[in-house]
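FAQ
Q: What does a multi-component entry look like?
A: The components come first, one per line:
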Amino acid sequence: MDQQSLVSLILILLTFALYIGISVYNRAKVTSDFYVASRGIPPFWNGMAIGGDWMSAASFIGMAGTVMILGYDGLAYIMGWTGGYLLLTFLLAPQLRKYGRFTVPEFIGDRFDSNPARLIAAIATIIISFTYIIGQLSGSGVVIGRLLNLPASTGVMIGVVVIAIYASLGGMKGVTWTQVAQYMILITAYIVPIVFLSLQISGNPLPWLTYGNVVNELGALDRELGISEYFAPFEEGNRAQFLALLFTLMVGTAALPHVIVRFYTVTTMKAARWSGAWALLFIALLYLSAPAYAAFSRFVIMTQVVGSPIDDLPAWTEPWLNTGLLEIADSDGDGVLAWEDLVIHQDIVVMATPEIANLGMFVVGLIAAGAMAAALSTAGGLLITISSSFAHDIYYRLMKPEATDSNRLLAGRIAIVLSTIAAGLVALDPPGVITQIIAWAFALAGGTFFPVLFLGVWWKRMNRQGAIAGMLGGLSVTLGYIFLSMGGVTFFGIQDTGAGVFGVTANLLLVIIVSLMTPPPEQRLQDEAVDLRYPEQMTYKDGEVWMNDEQAK
Amino acid sequence: MQKVEKKVADQYFKIRTTLVVVFLIIGFSVSFGVAFFAEAINESGAMIMGMPAHYYMGAQGAVVTFVILLFLNAIISDQVDKKFGIDEKQNVKISGGGADH
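Then the predicted structure of the entire assembly, as tokens:
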């Protein structure tokens, strides 16, 4: 093991020790600790935990590269993955918090008083979260393996063992505080390298203010080469695909169960609103930095690598050529590297930056620890969600309503360990289609859940028939369109990644039409929906609103 | 327990809903709206912070607007709650720690 691997390994082991330490200190003692951290997390810290929960290994490693390769079209990911928090915080989170359950399937099951709806929601939650977690584990395995010169499978196994320990011990309470620590590590690891890169290129330490000129210069360089400008819109698709992808990502973000459940961990509706605001601020720090990363990297490659003789490239390119993330082919045979000769993999942008900028071993190790933090924090949130669907929604609410609290806690722990092992086994040798399934997770989540949650909160007339028809219909239309577009049949040029547009529309229409064609729900259920309009202190009962003004203790 | 006038309760809901609608319209305009006209903006040559305006809005402008909207929503909603005499301490007490399910 060389010196670099040793430094990276030590940094990663230190962070692992920190995560396990945190969960030992925050052990879950009752089910309310285990699923919703006893609803006592302050909004500022919950915002930070949402940031860690939300930003995955793919965001950390791949997003800057995606923006670099796709140019303007990659910005759909930046706007979509942040804009989802508008929908979530304005339309769903505070109301779902007031309803006061443990999980998303539980809201759907109780709001419509329907166990079939609960079961469908639980199964959809498990499928969406499970594909997502395989992506985290296999992605982190590859990254750790490469940075530490280990086989990817060893990387996966290390991740699986660590996460099984701390998630089953701490439950949501432990996961919350590890996510806070993981957010701090990943954001530091992301921002330190581009601050130095910005200093080197423009002499100003604030990359967010300086990369605009670089973007403009990139456009000029592209014009000289005779290729389309970096910032030219819709080069990789058409406008309809861009807007459909943007819509799918926004709606999908707002409907991902492992994100929604984080809003259950605060005390009130007010705290849920503030959680959303803090969360987007912390998330924006990374998402605003990704386009800067992309612009600087492309600029360095175009000005320092392109144009050099092929047998005398800068030293940092060599290891990446060996791993295949950077490929060159001297197509015109003149011995000089041209931009068209380069094939760049998206993951290289974040990982190679420290070497491009000569930032040394510590920063490379920091990136490794940051990538691992990003993968583990998301995986932790997903594991809680998967285990709660099994242990709470299916085992407790459907099969054994008489189970004691300690039995339910044990069931939750077993479910976490089993799902970690299952996900780890699949991630050791992931089927090739897995990256595609993850790209579809947003369309599936949005198409299955968003309209049902949205109308469930805002429309009292919605009933159980509408909910079931909406979920099943939305899911089928989304899947159907994905397969159609894979087979080459598309509408308006919208590809599989934009399938959410059709799934969400079908779901919304089905909920409305089927609800109106069937009898209205019981008065009690309608009242519960109206009650969500007001803060906790106001209660809606029998057509009247009551204010609870007994002296607060 | 004290009864709240229907008019007052409806007004509370109306104010909160109006806020949400206004914020969402602004949020959609800076993202979907700008993307819809991206080609025209690119050709017009408009610049913000040294880069073409449509690229700036996608890379920074929209995200910064979203963050501002969420903080405005949190602050203004707190003031609305205060105006209607809502006591957050009371909210915490009522919503309690963990309902069983």
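Q: Is there any commentary attached?
A: Sometimes. For this entry: The longest strand of chain B covers residues 2-4.
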